[in-house]
Amino acid sequence: MLSNSDIVELTQFRCHLHEKPELSGEEYETAKMVTEFMQNTVPDEVLTDLGETGVALVYNGAEPGPTVMVRAELDALPIEELTEVAHKSQIAGKGHLCGHDGHMVMVCAVGRMMAKQRPAKGRVVLLFQPAEETGQGARAVRDDARFAQIKPDVALSLHNLPGLPLGHVAIAEGPANCASRGIRIELTGKTAHASMPETGVSPMQAVAALMPGLTELGSGGKLVPGYRLVTVTHAEMGEAVFGVTPGHAVVLGTLRCLQDADMATLCEEAEALISEVAKRDGLQVKLSYHDVFHACTNAADPTAVLKRAVEQRNVPLIEDAGPMRWSEDFGLFGYGAQSAMFLLGSGTDQPQLHNPDYDFPDDLIPVGAGIFEAAIREILG
């Protein structure tokens, strides 16, 4: 269990992390701060620069057994923080406005508990992962050759959730977060004088067709198997002048599915539509995908373990919250491990994630850490 002094020190560290946010792939100082803060927990193994900036701390049990990994995220967002808290971001245009500072500290708290009492068997890996916001961090960690040294049998994580009552937990077996990816469509024709548009090849009609056409491929609806949503997020065409008929355009969109299996089909349909429209209008087309997130699916066994941990810690449990539309690259760790993520309520009157006035509620630190510890003790003793 955490002592009062533990909670004070963890809260102070959370505020320190909040003051010094770093963006995805740039979390060098954040990783260093975490590593230094955790030195007094005396981990049996420390891996740094994992997936470029990640950190993994290993706590061995007395006997052989499975590996349980608990993951937190290192990165912040490219958003200017608009709060008046004493620990407000000191870095212009950057802020911990998703609660990753709180997630890190809850996992740090687990390390303190492991220092006081190692697991009876197996080992605990605390992973501080880079670049979650771009969907690149989990893959970078898994692609690192040293990941084989800490490959988990069970992977656990959480995310705080505004709108859910403070300190309440939502978790259910099955889909937890959607798969998503950004698609970038570049259309190239031929620029012409605005007085002679017939001498050029404009992408105007193609852009006008693609925006509703892509949207019709996935109109959303209930989050049930087969759910698909396509959101056009940006479009630009030509130059901001009056004398030129455009010869170039870019359209950005986000493809979203509840399950990974549906994403390939949605991509094929989007690519077929884009190809058809480009060919019709005599345009060259270049496609690329970005911010690729796999779906998060909660496996039965770790979900049941987490539910029992919630009950053991006397935390209110909500079982019918359903999956979330947003994506989380934790889903990739579900390939090769039994994985589960729970949602921890950050308050019904809390600003939403990614809002410039969001700040993680420190009262959640012992709650989330306690649930993780109870789950670890059940699996490893």
From TrEMBL:
<dbReference type="GO" id="GO:0016787">
    <property type="term" value="F:hydrolase activity"/>
</dbReference>
<dbReference type="InterPro" id="IPR036264">
    <property type="entry name" value="Bact_exopeptidase_dim_dom"/>
</dbReference>
<keyword id="KW-0479">Metal-binding</keyword>
<feature type="binding site">
    <location>
        <position position="159"/>
    </location>
    <ligand>
        <name>Mn(2+)</name>
    </ligand>
</feature>
<keyword id="KW-0378">Hydrolase</keyword>
<feature type="binding site">
    <location>
        <position position="100"/>
    </location>
    <ligand>
        <name>Mn(2+)</name>
    </ligand>
</feature>
<feature type="domain" description="Peptidase M20 dimerisation">
    <location>
        <begin position="181"/>
        <end position="281"/>
    </location>
</feature>
<dbReference type="InterPro" id="IPR017439">
    <property type="entry name" value="Amidohydrolase"/>
</dbReference>
<keyword id="KW-0464">Manganese</keyword>
<dbReference type="GO" id="GO:0046872">
    <property type="term" value="F:metal ion binding"/>
</dbReference>
<dbReference type="InterPro" id="IPR011650">
    <property type="entry name" value="Peptidase_M20_dimer"/>
</dbReference>
<feature type="binding site">
    <location>
        <position position="98"/>
    </location>
    <ligand>
        <name>Mn(2+)</name>
    </ligand>
</feature>
<dbReference type="InterPro" id="IPR002933">
    <property type="entry name" value="Peptidase_M20"/>
</dbReference>
<feature type="binding site">
    <location>
        <position position="133"/>
    </location>
    <ligand>
        <name>Mn(2+)</name>
    </ligand>
</feature>
<protein>
    <submittedName>
        <fullName>Amidohydrolase</fullName>
    </submittedName>
</protein>
<dbReference type="Pfam" id="PF01546">
    <property type="entry name" value="Peptidase_M20"/>
</dbReference>
<dbReference type="Pfam" id="PF07687">
    <property type="entry name" value="M20_dimer"/>
</dbReference>
<feature type="binding site">
    <location>
        <position position="354"/>
    </location>
    <ligand>
        <name>Mn(2+)</name>
    </ligand>
</feature>
